[in-house]
Design goal:
It is built from six helices and four strands. It is mainly α. The strands form two sheets. The chain has a two-stranded parallel sheet.
């Protein structure tokens, strides 16, 4: 990689760091607001097995469940869920992390192919990863349908 490529990569990393800082401050603000909110009774999510589904059906099922979780738990939980999914704290969710994290919302049997298809369905910058903005936008997009 030449000097110009190195500088461009360094600049992108700086932008990523600023965006992460903005998200962290937003999250702290929302957590303070959420702590003041009264608790609500939570309904456990029905276990769904994705194993026998094709990729298209799995993608639809995953986003429906995540939309359901976001509607019941609220945006604060969406941020918390994203952070839980992002096991390596990189600010991105990859297919491996997604497969593991879907168990939290009772989605079982997610194949690597399913996970890649879910990410591809929301990956706006085509890097093969989901950042919080892509994740949140996909949830909003699903809510509109």
């Amino acid at each position: 990689m030449g000097y110009v490529g190195y500088r461009a990569k360094k600049k992108l990393n700086e932008i990523d760091q600023r965006e992460r800082s903005r998200l962290i401050s937003l999250e702290q603000e929302e957590l303070e607001i959420g702590q003041k909110r009264e608790g609500q009774e939570k309904v456990p999510y029905k276990v769904i097995n994705l194993k026998s589904m094709d990729d298209e059906m799995a993608v639809s099922t995953v986003w429906e469940r995540l939309r359901e979780v976001a509607a019941q738990e609220g945006r604060l939980y969406t941020i918390k869920l994203f952070k839980q999914m992002d096991e390596d704290s990189s600010g991105f969710i990859d297919a491996k992390e997604l497969r593991q994290a879907l168990k939290v919302v009772n989605l079982r049997g997610c194949s690597f192919s399913h996970a890649k298809a879910v990410i591809k369905s929301a990956d706006q910058n085509l890097d093969g990863l989901l950042n919080y903005q892509e994740f949140a936008y996909a949830l909003k997009d699903e809510e509109k349908k």
